[in-house]
Amino acid sequence: MQELKDLAGVIGLATWDQETYLPRKAEGARASQLATLQGLYHERLVEPALGDWLQSARGLPLDEQAMVRVLTEERDRAVKVPARLVKELAEAQSLAIAAWKEAREKNAFERFRPHLERLLALRREQADAIGHGGERYDALLDNYEPGMKVERLTPVLQQLRQKLTPIVEAICAAPPPPDVFQGQRFAPDAQWTFTLELLGKMGFDLDAGRQDKSVHPFTGGTHPRDVRLTTRIQESTPLPAIYGAIHEGGHGLYEQGFAEGHFRTPIAAAPSMGLHESQSRLWENVVGRSLAFWQQLFPRLQQLFPDALGKVSLHDWHRAVNRVERSFIRVEADEVTYNLHVVLRYELELELLRGNLPVAELPGAWNAKMQSMLGVSPPNATLGVLQDIHWAWGEFGYFPTYALGNLYAASLFGAACREVPGLEAAISRGELAPLRDWLRERVHGEGFRYYAEDLVKKVTGKGLTDEDFITYLRTKYSALYGVKL
After folding, report:
1. How far apart are CA 273 and CA 408, in angstroms?
2. In terms of pTM, does the model score above 0.85?
3. Is 248 among the catalytic positions?
């Protein structure tokens, strides 16, 4: 178990470097290196001796039982996938990432298209090798959200879309908040300083992690004592840097919060990406876009940007960071429209995996769905089909976990408010440790002892539901926009 965890850490480091500091001319070499490392990991995982040991494990303590269960499930999937396919996927991913970056820069989907076609073919082959009941997406989705199936997921997302659409329409028909960023400049160095201060406030240990810059913010690393975050900076607005740092900081706190006795074992992990995303979305939105959060922090932001924000009131700032609008970019979308971006990608992924949508037609299909769901049509591929890195990573099945994360986040924060006296008052004083400590005890420290929904039920008393999330949105945005939702 420990050797596998160590190999995964080295793979994580090489991948993080690929997205941050790798020289462009080294991309081909890194593709080969990652293919070799992934191949070694696969070989160790499918060794017959490991299977024998796992089968013979009996009478273990509860934590070790969980380790055996998690590793057995990972191994059962891996033994079905040929080593040749593992290496081909790793190499194809690395080449696709390089092609995606170039395609984004040049607004040229055709430069990325053959790589996406290659990844789709490999993922279909992988899904068939793992096995499924006729829905390839199920085999890939299980890698991110164990136990979830299209049959259950589709109604959840369709219902969420139906509930969100009238909320979006009502809010967008109301007068928008003032644009406090129009014509302003926010110095990159000051933005960087503020993001590091935010991470410190949240309790992210910068002696056990770091933050860097990347095209698309992400969290990686090698170990709970080596967690790597990235964000991105725009001079015209500080929001991508601020909320990128808070979002990834939420992921980072989860990674740093596993029990020390679980390090270098399979249960030093989140039980699903939906639960992992619940942490990033909880911090980014439920906390990071609340009035309480900014009561203590906004004066510091004004101090860093006196010309741009010195005359902006806390009220106008709070409304500005909660502006709801039909927009192109998912990672910058408000929390009301965000899940519509996710549903769009989920529906496209299903059609791609089923072979009903040729990759050559993907940009047009993307624009049509964006128009129907969000009422906007991207003027170019960079603002549309090329905006996310996930397909370059070959991560089909990942996007729905963002929506699941939003639903879990609302339920978890409600439980935290019930169990931690004066939590929101503490947040308004800039004291974020009570929330972090509660999450560390109730969520992070559990690791993969339980499946995601079982853990949420244990903490909140309920499983996957959109009721808490929709109630949260209606309450918050009715007050902000003066509309009945």
Report:
1. 11
2. yes
3. yes
